[in-house]
UniProtKB/TrEMBL annotation:
InterPro entries: ConA-like_dom_sf, Glyco_hydro_32, Glyco_hydro_32_AS, Glyco_hydro_32_C, Glyco_hydro_32_N, Glyco_hydro_beta-prop_sf. The keyword Hydrolase applies. Residues 14-343 form the Glycosyl hydrolase family 32 N-terminal domain. This is Glycosyl hydrolase family 32. Pfam families: Glyco_hydro_32C (PF08244), Glyco_hydro_32N (PF00251). Belongs to the glycosyl hydrolase 32 family. It comes from Cephaloticoccus capnophilus. One of its GO terms (biological process) is sucrose catabolic process. GO terms for molecular function: sucrose alpha-glucosidase activity. SUPFAM superfamilies: Arabinanase/levansucrase/invertase, Concanavalin A-like lectins/glucanases.
Length: 521
């Protein structure tokens, strides 16, 4: 057993730091077979101190090896969030003529600056050895604050069509777009968001990318050919924006906008009302998610910080000298259905490849009378601390249909579908209020995390549930709705039950343990 597995709260297959504090993923980058995860890091204590960029690498997005620190504070300047690119054309001139430089674009947050509107500027660092060591650009900063207290988290990507770099960054309660030929000189293009989406908190960690559109409009039996004439566009642009506070279940969360980007301006699609917000994840514990750059095959892979500023500093692993973990890497896709354009996220296939075939468990059952709980299903040898479970629910009637995980202490984590009685509304819910909370800060459990489901009452629902020692990531209808929740049970869950307030609901489940024993601490 390796060191990590002996610590109470150390996750088995989510990235966590050996020591110190982490928050946002930064500089996500794929290069030559290696996934690079940089992150907001304070190595000396489990607190949000002077920020460094930590570094971890993976060959498969499942097991991560921590690497030496990438960026260190420069005097009073902290290394806040940002991104990294491979500068193949050596546009920056940082290259040595043989290896394309990696360039990190981060927010230089200067705590010594007395003008509150000049604290945050954008700066560069570069690496000529594949991200292992970094040098600061002597001409920093490259983009000065236009006079805003919050001006940060640049996400830069290569715009192949126009042969330029594009940057989106958070500027107060909106985002700004910039372009550059060399990563050093930046030109303002436009802004978006003053009027749209969720407000009331600060906007942070934006990302902008395009996605092909998959049509799910016609999955109700109509032939796809029938869509001729009103077929959705083939590709749309997605803008991610984290907001804190202001999430749908309080605190931190990430919203998304679907629209078009004409090279200068982002325009929201008419199917998304400007005033409404859409959420990448409705849980309390998925924040600051951004995508990897330079990924082959146009995969859109996102990682988020699996915490919430409401309580991030008070979680119990602090007693072991570390705090913070990342979500499962998720693949994003864009569908169009009766709700309009919907951004789905789902665990990467690399995680599914870790299912231990020998651990497979099938079960099904039916609620014969209303309010019945079918007998608890013991998972036996199947270790739910590294569990991946597919659940199909059918015949759902009015009220709640609930999946319950229970541990030997009697602690319960409940989730399911609520066809709200007397209304045409349906919701997905995750309730962690009885899942073991004595070690947790008071503001930890929002008793019920709720995600409204589109299309009225739900007769059926498919869910994928990923459990680790201290988290549940729930993906409904292949990621149409996600709820990510930290949970701190006193012992692992060992059995599962199903109950419903209506009669005739059925469930079937297929469960696996994930083979992650070879992941290093
Ligand atoms: C988001 C954030 C960023 C900032 C970083 C500081 O969680 O507040 O906006 O750059 O964390 O650690």
């Amino acid at each position: 057993m390796n060191a990590s597995h002996s610590e109470n709260y150390r996750p088995l297959y989510h990235f966590s730091p050996r020591k110190g504090w982490i928050n946002d993923p930064n500089g996500l980058l794929y290069l030559d077979g290696t996934w690079h995860l940089f992150f907001q890091y304070y190595p000396h204590a489990p607190i949000h101190g002077p920020m460094y960029w930590g570094h971890a690498t993976s060959c498969d997005l499942v097991c991560w090896q921590e690497q030496p620190v990438a960026l260190c504070p420069q005097g009073s300047i902290y290394m806040f969030s940002g991104s990294a690119v491979v500068d193949y054309g050596n546009t920056s001139g940082f290259g040595d003529g043989t290896t394309p430089p990696l360039v990190a674009i981060y927010t230089a947050h200067d705590i010594a600056e007395t003008d509150p509107n000049q604290v945050e500027n954008q700066a560069l660092a570069y690496s000529l050895d594949g991200g292992m060591t970094w040098a600061q650009y002597a001409g920093n900063p490259v983009l000065q604050s236009p006079g805003l207290p919050d001006f940060r988290d640049p996400k830069v990507s290569w715009d192949a069509e126009c042969g330029r770099w594009l940057m989106v960054l958070a500027a107060g309660d909106r985002v700004h777009f910039y372009e550059s030929a060399d990563l050093i000189n930046w030109r303002f293009l436009s802004e978006f968001g003053a009027e749209c989406g969720a407000h009331g908190g600060v906007w942070e960690c934006p990302d902008l990318f395009s996605l092909p559109v998959k049509n799910e409009f016609w999955e109700d039996g109509l032939d796809a050919d029938d869509s001729e004439g009103c077929a959705p566009e083939k590709e749309k642009w997605v803008l991610l924006v984290s907001i804190n506070p202001g999430g749908p279940n309080e605190g931190s969360a990430t919203q998304y906008f679907v629209g078009d980007f004409d090279g200068t301006t982002f325009t929201l699609d008419e199917s998304q009302p400007c005033a409404s917000a859409r959420w990448v994840d409705w849980g309390r514990d998925n924040y600051a998610g951004v995508l990897f750059n330079n990924v082959p095959g146009d995969r859109r892979v996102m990682i988020g910080w699996m915490s919430n500023w409401d309580y991030a500093a008070e979680l119990p692993s602090a007693a072991d000298g570390w705090l913070g973990q990342m979500t499962i890497p998720r693949e994003l896709s864009l569908v169009v259905n009766s709700e309009g354009y919907v951004l789905k996220s789902y665990p990467v296939p690399e995680l599914f490849a870790r299912r231990e075939q020998g651990s497979r468990l099938f079960r099904c059952g039916k609620v014969e009378v209303a309010n019945e709980e079918v007998p608890m299903i013991p998972f036996g040898e199947l270790d739910l601390k590294r569990g991946m479970i597919k659940v199909s629910l059918h015949g759902l009637g009015a009220g709640q249909s609930t999946i319950t995980f229970r541990n030997p202490w009697g602690q319960e984590l409940r989730l399911g579908v609520n066809n709200v009685e007397g209304s045409a509304r349906a919701e997905l819910f995750v309730d962690r209020s009885d899942a073991g909370s004595e070690v947790l800060p008071k503001n930890f459990p929002v008793p019920l995390m709720v995600a409204p489901l589109a299309g009225g009452m739900r007769n059926s629902m498919r869910m994928l549930l990923c459990l680790d020692k201290t988290s549940l990531e729930c993906f409904a209808n292949r990621g149409e709705r996600c709820v990510t929740a930290s949970v701190y049970p006193s012992a692992a869950f060992t059995e599962m039950g199903f109950s419903a307030e209506s009669t005739g609901a059925t469930f079937s489940l297929e469960a696996y343990a994930l083979h992650v024993d070879n992941c290093e601490p």
